Amino acid sequence: MCGIFGYIGSKPASSILIAGLKRLEYRGYDSAGICLVENQELFNCKSSGKIADLESKILNAKLPQATLGIGHTRWATHGEPTEINAHPHFDCKKEIAVVHNGIIENFQALKSLLEKEGHIFASQTDTEVLSHLIEKFYSGNNFEKAVQEAVEVLEGTFGLAIVCNKEQKIIAVKKGSPLVLGIGDKEIFVASDAAALISHTKRVIYLEDNEMAMLSTDGFAVKKFDGTIIEKEIQELKWSVEQIEKGGFEHFMLKEIFEQPQAIANTLRGRLSSNGVKFSFTLDPCFVKRIIILACGTSYYSGLIGKHIIERITGIPVEVDYASEFRYRNPLVNESDLAIVISQSGETADTLGALKTAKAKGAKTIGIVNVVGSTIAREVDAGIYLHAGPEIGVASTKAFTCQITALILLAVYLQQNKDDCWVDLNFLSQLQELPNQLQEVLSQAEKVKNIAQIIKTSTNALYLGRGTNYPVALEGALKLKEISYIHAEGYPAAEMKHGPIALIDENMPVVFLATKDETYEKILSNMQEVKARKGKIFAIVNSDDTLAKNLADEFIEVPFAVDLLSPIINVIPLQLLAYYVAVSKGIDVDKPRNLAKSVTVE
Ligand code: M6R
């Protein structure tokens, strides 16, 4: 979390920094700040709240027209989201300014040491030790060396942009938190995410861990922490500016929900034909005795659906683990395991940690990732990009449906490469039908909006589904709680009678995933049980299903799909429901409280 943006060139830095920070605001939005370098002096402006607050403060701040600066948007870890704790942080003499994404784990020990040496700290952040540490090693003309020495004693994760009053230079440092350089014409940018660079340049360089870059108007040099010079490859970004704009929608989340037919078509494109699935990597399925899926949040839920998909199609046993649990439980993993890591951002710290654990224990790894060039995408043995386009709303939507699509492709790929060469042509053509079916569901947005008006006053909600639709219930509940702040739980429908049924009364909305599959009849019985206790039933049903419609107080019709595909269709009304509930409660759906899009801390 936290977003870093830095600029050095010939244009006024302040407005470029603000525009860059706005693009990164999804990474954290509780406070922000910038620092400009001009005439051997550092000028800063900080604010609690969102970038817009900082922007209005800058208007009255009388900052110079500098052409060099760094900025930061914060997701607080150490210290409250106040102006004092906002980045940049300075040394005692205000010669060094630092913005940081990550956590300095040994900051307490370093702070005590520095305080004993006379350094005065202004904030409660872990970041501030860095500026004082650099000050300790800085003798007036050794900026780069001082940064190197400071970095060597740090433990934890850090993406840093650092400036010094005496140098027309930005030093960018990476260990564990993402940083990418944007190479323009006599201007250079540094950002936490390539999406923030697109409006300036498409030529980027991804820094790797333990690398630092020295940026000036003359160019850049990248070195290892020990000073060894590294040749870096410039890569071309494929995303366009339009893709990172709202395109007429009120929120990114709504735009991204409506982009799903196209996003899924993009995930399928070039990979699916009547002969089966092809990827740019080759994977011998014979070595795979077990698959372990590792992910967090929404990506974890798509992994739960992936278990059904892969086990059913390939017969290979699949375990799904929260990445954060897997990495710390000394898991049993060996060379015959395939670990699939799923991450929209490709930067989630726990997922990255789990990937490293699986690799260290000998597993082969595949990443299902959306953000091209992200850390996880670069660390895995082989990767499947979603090609869903940038997902900016904090609540994940199109990534979820594209992840499931990618898992289906992967399962078919694994199976077709086995001796028996299974390709179910009917299933593959149903897969290709998905974009059209999604359009059909999206055309009911107005009806979902009306249902949202009923649910918005609730304080709790229960989401029930079975089989492949149980994770959809979990995802529906997660969407509602994260953006509408209504407490919601997802449950396997049959488990309701083992406890949650005690909660049901006329005030409890119960959302049922009641489309036709093997357990459909049993879901109908669960609906009866809720109805008997006066619970309010909101059901996702197939268009031709009068039984489920009769049991529901309100329903949304969806086209029929086999149970391995139905989660992709059934989740759409739940995404819309959460969205409209949140909007009607006046919540900033793209930036709900306490959250950040990319969770780069443990
Ligand atoms: O980028 P990732 O897919 O690794 O992110 C994982 C979770 O942080 C993410 O899905 C989170 O749960 C979303 N806010 C859900 O909408």
Short description:
With 602 residues, the chain is of the alpha/beta class.
Explain this structure to me?
The chain is α/β, with parallel strands linked by helices and 602 residues long. It has 3 domains: 3-237, Aminohydrolase, N-terminal nucleophile (Ntn) domain (Glutamine Phosphoribosylpyrophosphate, subunit 1, domain 1, 4-Layer Sandwich); 246-441, Rossmann fold (3-Layer(aba) Sandwich), CATH 3.40.50; 444-588, Rossmann fold, CATH 3.40.50.10490. 34% of the residues lie in helices and 24% in strands. The protein is built from 18 helices and 27 strands. Strands 3-2-4-1-10-9-11-15 form an 8-stranded antiparallel sheet, covered by helices on one side. Helix 1 runs antiparallel to helix 2, helix 4 crosses helix 5 and helix 14 (445-455) packs across helix 18 (566-584). The chain is globular, with a radius of gyration of 25 Å. The mean pLDDT is 94. The protein binds 5-amino-5-deoxy-1-O-phosphono-D-mannitol. 5-amino-5-deoxy-1-O-phosphono-D-mannitol binds at residues 296-299, 343-345, 348, 351, 394-396, 478, 482, 598-599.
Key words describing this protein structure:
602 residues, alpha/beta, Glutamine Phosphoribosylpyrophosphate, subunit 1, domain 1, Rossmann fold, 3 domains, 7-stranded antiparallel β-sheet, 24% strand
